[in-house]
Design brief:
Elements lengths: L3 E3 L11 H20 L3 E5 L7 H4 L8 E6 L12 H9 L3 E6 L3 H10 L3 E4 L2 H10 L1
Parallel strand pairs: 1-2, 2-3, 3-4, 4-5
């Protein structure tokens, strides 16, 4: 038995129609609702793609545990790109799990704002480090 799960991540991206993004976000949240009502602890997945995070998370309380996957994401463009930080500050997670690509700029912003996070190396990167390192 697991202590909890990271929220379902049926992928949606900002290049999809907004209606399709909204439908996928709802699908992810409905699956979480089924788990939650059955007593499973949830770690919120922070995917919002091109949708307004405040709208996607309007019924999510602040202070929950959250997870962000950087697997398919480009790193922040510049030190002045606060798009990820703005999203996380709307949620104000108690703890944040980050997995996937390393993004020094995003981590520096989280450090500056005092967000409690931990980075986990994803399986693909771990395998590359073992075979090349």
């Amino acid at each position: 038995m697991y202590m909890g799960v990271i929220g379902l991540d049926v992928t949606f991206t900002d290049d999809m129609d907004e209606e399709w993004q909204s439908a996928m976000a709802l699908l992810n949240q409905l699956f979480l609702a089924v788990l939650a009502v059955n007593g499973i602890s949830i770690v919120l997945n922070t995917r919002t793609a091109g949708l307004d995070a405040a709208c996607v998370w309007q019924n999510i309380p602040q202070g929950v545990m959250a997870a962000s996957g950087f697997l398919g994401c480009d790193p922040l463009n510049s030190e002045d790109d606060f798009s990820y930080l703005e999203k996380i500050l709307m949620l104000l997670p108690e703890k944040l799990i980050i997995y996937g690509k390393h993004d020094e700029k995003a981590e520096k912003q989280l450090d500056t704002m005092g967000i409690d996070y931990r980075v986990y190396t994803d399986f693909h990167r771990l395998c590359k480090e073992v075979h090349h390192g």
